[in-house]
Design brief:
alpha/beta, 8-stranded mixed sheet, 4-stranded antiparallel sheet, 14 helices, 16 strands
């Protein structure tokens, strides 16, 4: 199907498919993977041979606001993610993975470009990704893939430059919530659910035939604390409702995987899943995200699922970051890796497959947020996390002075006790790393800006953000 025909039919297809899928989803019976997963068992050699295959599709799932430590595969005691945990048991899980910001726009700009926030320059609400940036969708498009993006977060709207390289880049049409679904984030008024994104994705795949595709799906139900009676398992506090919403989203992911399996796509699709940031529940005196870059808002999951099962699943113990995602994917597919701050983690994957571990290289990882990102009249006030092994240095610049903290995950895995006074040497060393990082400049020069109209501002306010 030509792009013009696809563009013309797209809105009507989305509407029809969304209504049908949401109706049917109320009757879906969850099944064990043994009932529906047709993928064959693979080996380390099959991972190496991925680069020689010419039939591989790529599905990238971004689950907005998903903390790593709230998933069973990352050690959580609650059963919030049974389906995702089962998938992880036959894929690759990256055990210590850092997002580059706790705010979606800055985090996604870094992830897509494999550049740290100082190098993208995308740190404020009106910043736009410049056309000079090379985005993964452009690389996939040039390699012959049909590229489609389905986003539900306005911070990655096409008006901010996030559509570069996509043949189709759309917000799925919202539909009324299914019966029994609750939305408990008090700051959110956005309509629709991730079910509409799944419906849109499946409708797109119906028309692809043998064409290779790259599909990006941006889920928002965890961000919106959305769940139903069947996923209401863990209580009524906000931290409990957050867990309920993860279980709801886990069910949405299962329905998507079952549909891919039924269509025959699961056996020739590389699936990547991660998040843009986490969520705080008072661990350091605040709730939500886009305020600081402590552990709870920056440690996120990262999985890769192959078109075959790896049994047992692989775990990469090395520190990794969102800027490493696309170098790793391109390396697996045999595509050229553009220059950036991230690097391929295929060597670590192959080491895990061989039952060994590589010595860690360049162990420093960084998360960064301009605390005044929504207040253009104020000067930047950066907060930076520099993570090195089990140590996490936090720098918070504020009008009344700079705050510096140091956390040691060895005897304080939740990183709640400031150990700056106990480790003066590491404190100075990591503070110097933070200072050097903040001295770096955007590689394309100052980021372009654009004025947001009232409709855009209202959409972003509906997501719970306080904007001018």
């Amino acid at each position: 199907m030509s792009k013009s025909v696809l563009d013309q039919r797209w809105p009507w297809l989305l509407t029809a498919a969304t209504v049908v899928l949401i109706f049917l989803s109320t009757f879906v019976r969850w099944r064990s993977p043994q009932d529906w997963d047709p993928r064959p068992t693979g080996s380390a050699k099959d991972i190496e041979l991925l680069a020689q295959r010419d039939d591989l599709n790529v599905l990238f799932i971004l689950v907005d606001t998903l903390r790593a430590d709230r998933l069973g595969s990352y050690g959580y005691e609650r059963e919030t993610s049974p389906h995702l945990d089962t998938m992880a048991a036959s894929g690759v899980r990256f055990a210590r993975h850092l997002a580059q910001s706790s705010w979606t726009k800055a985090s996604m700009a870094s992830m897509w470009t494999s550049l740290l926030p100082t190098h993208t320059g995308i740190t404020r609400f009106d910043h736009v990704i410049p056309e000079d940036a090379l985005m993964p969708a452009e690389i996939f498009r040039d390699a012959g893939y049909q590229t489609v993006g389905l986003y539900r977060n306005g911070w990655v709207a096409p008006t901010f430059g996030f559509d570069q390289g996509f043949d189709v880049y759309e917000r799925p049409l919202p539909v009324p919530l299914p019966p029994g679904v609750r939305r408990k984030n008090p700051t959110v008024t956005e309509a629709g659910t991730d079910e509409s994104a799944v419906a849109s994705a499946l409708e797109f795949l119906r028309f692809q035939g043998s064409n290779k595709w790259f599909l990006y799906m941006h889920f928002m139900d965890v961000h919106e604390y959305l769940y139903d009676e069947s996923s209401s398992k863990f209580g009524t506090r906000y931290t409990d409702v957050y867990d309920n919403s993860i279980l709801w989203t886990d069910g949405t992911l299962q329905r998507l995987m079952e549909a891919l399996a039924e269509s025959g796509s699961l056996e020739n699709t590389l699936i990547v899943l991660t998040s843009d940031h986490g969520e705080a529940f008072g661990e350091h005196g605040f709730e939500g995200h886009a305020r600081k870059v402590y552990r709870e808002t920056s440690e996120v999951p990262f999985f890769i699922f192959f078109p075959f099962r790896i049994e047992p699943g692989l775990v990469v113990p090395s520190r990794t970051s969102n800027i490493d995602i696309w170098p790793t994917v391109f390396d697996l597919l045999g595509l050229e890796i553009p220059s950036g701050d991230g690097r391929s983690r295929v060597p670590e994957i192959m080491a895990a497959a061989a039952g060994t571990a590589l010595p860690e290289q360049n162990t420093i990882a960084i998360a960064h947020l301009d605390q005044t990102w929504a207040r253009p009249a104020q000067s930047p006030q950066p907060t930076v996390a520099v993570v090195d092994g089990d140590l996490r240095y936090i720098r918070i610049d504020q009008p009344e002075g700079r705050v510096e903290q140091l956390f040691d995950a060895v005897d304080d895995p939740l990183e709640l006790r400031d150990r700056a006074a106990d480790f003066p040497g590491p404190l100075v060393r990591l503070a110097q790393e933070a200072e050097a990082y903040l001295d770096e400049k955007p590689i394309w020069g100052e980021a372009p800006t654009r004025e947001l109209d009232e409709l855009e501002l209202n959409h972003l306010r509906a997501l719970g953000y306080a904007l001018p």
